[in-house]
Amino acid sequence: VMVGGGRGGSRTLVVGGARSGKSRYAEHLMRAQPAVTYVATGGGSTDDPGRAGDGEWAERIARHRADRPSWWETIETHDVVGVLRTAEAPIVIDCLGTWLTARLDMHGVWSGGGITPVEADVEELLSAWRDCAVPVVAVTNEVGSGVVPGSASGRLFRDLLGRLNAAMAQESDSVVLMVAGQPLVVRGESPDKPRSDIQPRVKPR
Questions:
Q1: Which residues take part in binding GTP (predicted)?
Q2: What three-state secondary structure class fits 173?
């Protein structure tokens, strides 16, 4: 159910606010593929000290895993560039917001470090996204439609993610904005249409 792309793979960016249906829609786009690599950039609750002991978060992660097709491979990593460079199967990336947070953490931006290393990481991500040889769908948060964050760190994150989203959209074949569970195509053709070159996976009897 994906449109064709440029260099061997299509690139679709799915943007939406919290609980907008963006992750579910991204997964829907890939369900006809015989093999998919799902890249969870947030990891599980045990991978994030801020989520340690958060039973609700762990339950949410487990529910998301259970909803995915059993034949999908799930990778929990922040190395999205590495996955894009080496992928042999279609990819779902969920999501760019947590990827950016990890880069900000790694480079010590919250404690006063400069953003130049983060900007270099973004350029590397854009290059890998542009050149990816397989169909790929990335999920990201829309953070510019609400109130202005009250903290400097919140405003910095909003600004950086907004710029990242715009740059990714520019390099995408299709961009879909999710509103109340409804997909609105804002760039390119709708990615949600049948393709004759995708063979449905045959489940074993």
A1: 16-23, 40-42, 65-68, 76, 94
A2: coil
